[in-house]
């Protein structure tokens, strides 16, 4: 369908533009990145590229292994040349909401370790301000024993509603690759995201938020008309 085609456009364009021989590549998580990894494997095959890939989740690790790409990690490569990842929403200053797939913590770590952090998204993610398109809130990864006090703290200080993310094909809450819970903060009004992000991260028991502020260097949007829009 159109959104899948748009994801493929963005994934292919980003890999065509940003991957070079001998690169250490951070591989994101979610559905859009699958197209980027397809193209990455194709280029490695066709151009005999020598690269290594650092995953941002069990899912990304599976993708890397399934495509026969060389797997590495931050112990061997604490500095990456480029990280490519999806997003749930992108605002006009390239602030991202990520974590729809529950992988935000390792994604943010890998993105921070990369010299270039490149985002790929279909047109549905393109937004003027956060919350306009994405209605599921900002994911917050938390230490399980603290999820209730953290829920109360966030709602008291910042309003909106905080919901513990429950499994669909698993009874009980979603457990992340790091063994933690995810809270989805359905915020009401526009906030100073930098201030709110810092405040939430300081709450004891918060591991990471899905707010990626000042991190994305460039976003590739696959559009309905088959074009790709690049925003720096
Ligand atoms: O969960 C995540 O952070 C994913 O990267 C998400 O932001 C994008 O997932 P999608 O490509 O399936 O929309």
The gist of it:
With 232 residues, the protein is α/β, with parallel strands linked by helices. The chain is built from six helices and 13 strands.
Model description:
With 232 residues, the chain is an alpha/beta fold. It has helices at 2-18, 32-47, 58-66, 104-113, 147-158, 193-201; strands spanning 24-27, 52-55, 80-85, 89-90, 96-97, 114-122, 138-142, 161-164, 181-186, 206-209, 211-212, 218-222, 228-231. Strand 12 and strand 13 form a beta hairpin. Helix 1 (2-18) packs across helix 2 (32-47). The longest helix has 17 residues, at 2-18. The protein is globular, with a radius of gyration of 17 Å. The mean pLDDT is 98. Bound molecules: D-4-phosphoerythronic acid (DER). D-4-phosphoerythronic acid binds next to helix 4.
Q: Taking Cα atoms only, what radius of gyration do you get, to the nearest Å?
A: 17 Å
Going across the biggest sheet, name each strand in turn.
2-1-3-6-12-13
In terms of per-residue confidence, which ranges show pLDDT below 50 for 5 or more consecutive residues?
none
Task: Please trace the helix and strand order, writing H or E for each element.
Answer: HEHEHEEEHEEHEEHEEEE
Derived from helix and strand composition plus strand pairing, the structural class reads alpha/beta
Strand content is 15-25%
Estimate percent helicity. Answer: 25-40%
How far apart lie the N and C ends? Answer: 27 Å
State the shape.
globular
How many distinct helices?
6
Mean pLDDT score, rounded? Answer: 98
Largest sheet: 6 strands, mixed
Q: Please count the beta strands (DSSP E, at least 2 residues each).
A: 13
Ligands in the model, by name, code or SMILES, are:
D-4-phosphoerythronic acid
